[in-house]
Design a protein that fits this description.
The protein has 229 residues and is of the alpha/beta class. The protein is built from 9 helices and 8 strands. Bound molecules: pyridoxal-5'-phosphate (PLP). The site of pyridoxal-5'-phosphate has 13 residues, from strand 8 and helix 9.
Length: 229
Amino acid sequence: MKMATAAAAPQPTGTPAERLAFVRRTLAAEAAAGGHRPAKLIAVSKTFGADSIRPLIVAGQRLFGENRVQEAADKWPALLAETPDIELHLVGQLQSNKAADAVRLFQAIHSVDRPSLVAALARACAQAGRQPELFAQVNIGAEPQKGGVAIEALPALLDEAAAKGLAITGLMAVPPADRDPAPYFALLAKLARRHGIDRLSMGMSQDHDVAARLGATHVRVGSALFGGR
Ligand SMILES: *Cc1c(COP(=O)(O)O)cnc(C)c1O
């Protein structure tokens, strides 16, 4: 387990394939230690171009994450033409006016955090005739500057989604920086159990080991794979 006082992530060493193998081994070992199935690894490629992404594709990675709809729309069509079986997840904030684009581009959206976005996604999904896998983003540390629905408002958001016919099957959170993330991950897992939700998107480069041990089903790892941004 990582200490709460861990310094900034060091630049990863090794080839992209070696970094990928290292992260995968960590996820498998921590999941086993916690009695869970290994989390899916989302390689968060925001700010990185095709030349940085291709080596990971060659190494076998097929699940990638982006945090901006426009960046993903600019970058991924060419890569998807080369390797059609890639899955893209949106891990960043989504503006309601980009909901239709997001539904077209992404197999999952990890940042559903307000009723107006639920409404926009419901319209976009009805129009597209498909629904990406949806995660409600929870402001797990009650930080004023951070995105995500307040813990107290989560039940109402889930009710709103259900009323609009949207299935929210996961919870996502980013714990406060410079704090031990474990209690926040445990709280997210508890909220998910309470609502009968079985997918947990938690853990980034700094703390994916801790998240994996606590039952993450999806971890979102950028810099440990791609290097610093
Ligand atoms: C950038 C980002 C990540 C990946 O962060 P790293 O620290 O580079 O691993 C994960 N989740 C979200 C929401 C992000 O924006």
